[in-house]
Amino acid sequence: MPRKTKEEKKQEEEKIKKYRKLTADDITERKDIRDRGKTISSREHRIKMYRFALVLCVLFLIIIYYLLRLWYSNSGFVIGLARDEEKEYGIVLFETLDDLNNGKNYKLQLNAGHIDYIDNISIDWVPKDIDNSNGGSHNEDNILAYTFFLANKGNTSINYWYTIYIDDVIKNVDDAMRIMIYQNGERTVYGKRARTGNAEYGTTPFLDEGRVCLVGRHDFNPGDVDKYTIVIFIEGDDPECLDPLIGGEMKMHMEIQSERNDSDRNVYSNEVLSHIE
After folding, report:
1. What's this model's pTM, rounded to 2 decimal places?
2. d(CA 20, CA 23)
3. For the chain, how many structural domains are there in total?
4. Are residues 87 and 44 in the same domain?
5. Distance between CA 57 and CA 62 in Å, rounded?
6. Domain match, 69 and 144 both
């Protein structure tokens, strides 16, 4: 085999160096491609996870929305007796005068229902005879009205208190809401305090943020019957009855509870006195 000349050896060495350089560059390039691939893959994975999380959040909000709509639409203004009033004292509710006179169909809880949409009105538009109902729901245009009867069918004279609780408010609609209570023909109109802290004209201020009122009834004797009419509307003459309230909602319930002892009376009385200016 002929020996290679120096020139040939030099050319061969240059070819080897060039090959090695190409191989190293190729390896580096391939590594860069793999790294870029991993980066792209990781970014795509994160994007998919973000999209999945976003879809879950949207679904969660939709479910919450429909649950709230269901809650508001299926449960109106509820009137109920606390604890075992019927068993211990014979205190019961009647929805209509006929039920009361027949002594049948007494209830421990009543539902005044709700109105899907209420526009604002003036208190002067509330019918003067709205308390003359014989019981049950008797709504007017933009007015929720409900009458019921509380009877002492037991053998004991008692004192009781009723509380109207504010369960939820949307869009501050309570700023202009009015809750009118007729108790045996005597009317009281409750309204949230104005932003100045003063009572709105012609109203008794809400007791606090969570309650409309806490009212006592003493010497409720066996055979006695108290008639209640609940009237709810939005007062258009309230300075805070403005466009931002549109679409708002308010959920409330009424609870009736007897005094069990002097301690109860002191607690309830002090609750009321503590909120009187």
Report:
1. 0.72
2. 5
3. 2
4. no
5. 9
6. no
Task: Give SS3 for 119.
Answer: coil
pLDDT in tens, the chain (277 residues): 556 566 666 666 666 665 555 555 555 666 666 666 666 667 777 777 778 787 777 777 777 655 555 545 556 799 999 878 888 889 999 999 999 999 888 999 999 988 888 899 999 999 999 999 999 999 999 999 999 999 999 999 999 999 999 999 999 999 999 999 999 999 999 999 999 999 999 999 999 999 999 999 999 999 999 999 999 999 999 999 999 998 888 999 999 999 865 555 555 555 555 544 4
Sheet order of strands, 78-81 included? 109-111, 78-81, 249-258, 158-170, 211-220
Q: Which domain holds residue 62?
A: 1-74
Q: Are residues 120 and 69 in the same domain?
A: no
- In single-letter form, the type of residue at position 252 comes to M
Closest CA to 264 of 207, 206, 211, 216: 216
Measure the CA–CA gap between 161 and 93, rounded to whole angstroms: 14
Answer for the pair 212, 277: CB distance below 8 angstroms, yes or no. no
